[in-house]
Design a protein that fits this description.
3 helices, 24% helix, 40% strand, elongated
């Protein structure tokens, strides 16, 4: 399973009074990186929807390590952790300059059908891409 890295510059409005990234923003960074990861695999979000792939978060765990700070360029590494029938999990490693660990998270997603409001299998082409 291949890792993908996406860079993001921390903006002022994403920080608290200490100029540290506000805790909930790390989840936004993970969401941005997940979207870019699938784009790197060959699909923008609309194409994923057309494939029958619309993941929603089922569970997440996050561990904060050291604060990322205003104007730093951080890296968000995305690595597939688990692939099931209708769900999958991604690991996220968020690092500041000098490879300084800022946070790590595991997010489990469930493939969802917005019409039926039920889970559905992850399309085989997505399973193959996540497993390669």
């Amino acid at each position: 399973m291949t890792a993908f890295v996406h860079q993001i510059r921390v903006r002022y409005q994403e920080t608290d009074m200490q100029r540290h990234v506000y805790f909930s923003r790390y989840l936004e960074y993970a969401d941005i990186a997940m979207t870019e990861y699938f784009r790197e695999l060959g699909w923008d979000y609309e194409e994923l929807i057309d494939l029958g792939f619309d993941p929603v978060i089922g569970k997440l765990e996050i561990e904060y390590q050291q604060p990322a700070r205003f104007d730093e360029v951080i890296e968000v590494e995305v690595t597939p952790a688990r692939i099931g029938n209708s769900s999958f999990a991604l690991d996220f490693a968020i690092r500041g300059p000098g490879d300084r660990p800022a946070a790590k998270a595991t997010i489990s997603y469930v493939n969802f059908d917005a019409t039926t409001r039920e889970t559905r299998p992850v399309p085989e082409v997505v399973v193959a891409a996540l497993g390669s």
